[in-house]
C-alpha cells in the first residue's frame, strides 16, 4: 500500500478538499448525487483562514485524498469536517488525520475536546473512542421560519462598532464565556465573521453589561447556506434570568435575519442543556438533523442543564 502522508492543508487545496468532503458525506448518507451534500454552504475557506495550523491534509500517490479541520475556542476545541475520498476508505487515513489533530490540540493546550458525528454509526464511534472521545447527549440542529420581526437593532451588532468599541465587546464576550466554562473564548470566531463578511455577531446588552451574544453566518457561501441565518455559537451570561435572556437573544437573531432578507433561522443545541432545548421547541424550532456530541475527556464541559449555549461542533 502506498504511504499515507499527513501534512498541513494548503490554501490552493481548499476547493479540492471541499469536493472530497461533499462526495464522502453524500456517499455515506446515500444521496443520489453526493456532490449536492450541503449545497450552498461552505466550511473550508473561512475555517482555514481562521485556524490554518489546525487544518491537515492526507496525501497518497501525490494526490489529496482527505482532510480534517480543527476549530480552536480557547480552552475548548473540536474538529470537523473529517473526510476521506470514498475510493480510499478503510485504509487508516481517517485515523491518521485524527492523530495529527490530537497532537495539535495538545500543542494548543486545550482542556476539553469535542466532535459531532452520526448518532447511529458504530464505525465512527469506534474510531473516535480510540482517541478517548465518548458519546454523550444528542445535538439536534433545529430551524424555524423567520417571522417579520422589527426590533430596534441599534448597538446590537458587532459590525456597528468602531475599533475601540469592538475591543470592549470582545472583552465582554470573553468574560461571558469564561463564566460558562473556564477559558472558553470565541474571539477568533467573532473576528472572522466580521473580517470575512460572513454575517454578524448579535449582542444583547443591559446598558454596558453584555447579557448574551450569537455569532451568525448569513446566506450562500457561509456555513448557513441559501436564505438561512445559522447561529455558529450563541451564549447567555449565567444569571437567574438566563432563560428569559435566551429568549430575547433568539428574538434578536430572528429580527436580524429578517433585516438580511433571510427566510430561515438555524441553530444547534445539545440536549443536555435541557431548558435551552425546551425553549427552542416552545419558540417553534424543529429538528432538521441530529448528531451526537462526543467529548474527550468524558466530562460534561459546558454541556450542562444550567447552560444556555447554541452550537453543534460540525
Number of strands: 12
Q: Which CATH class of the largest domain is shown?
A: Alpha Beta
| Percent in strands | 25-35%
- Any idea what the radius of gyration is? 19 Å
Q: Please state the second-level CATH architecture of the largest domain.
A: 3-Layer(aba) Sandwich
In helices, the fraction of residues equals 25-40%
H/E element sequence: EHHEEEHEHEHHEEEHEHEE
How far apart, in Å, are the first and last alpha carbons? 31 Å
C-alpha geometry: globular
Domain tally: 2
Class from secondary-structure proportions: alpha+beta
What name does CATH use for the topology of the largest domain? Aminopeptidase
CATH superfamily of the largest domain: Gcn5-related N-acetyltransferase (GNAT)
Mean of residue pLDDT? 96
Largest sheet: 12 strands, mixed
Number of helices: 8
Enumerate the spans where pLDDT stays under 50 for 5 or more consecutive residues: none
Structure overview:
- It is a single chain.
- This protein is α+β, with helices and mostly antiparallel strands and 314 residues long.
- The chain folds into two domains: 106 residues, Gcn5-related N-acetyltransferase (GNAT) (Aminopeptidase, 3-Layer(aba) Sandwich), CATH 3.40.630.30; 168 residues, Aminopeptidase (3-Layer(aba) Sandwich).
- The chain contains eight helices and twelve strands.
- Strands 1, 2, 3, 4, 5, 6, 7, 8, 9, 10, 11 and 12 form a twelve-stranded mixed sheet that branches.
- Strand 2 and strand 3 form a beta hairpin.
- The longest helix has 18 residues.
- The model has no long low-confidence stretch (mean pLDDT 96).
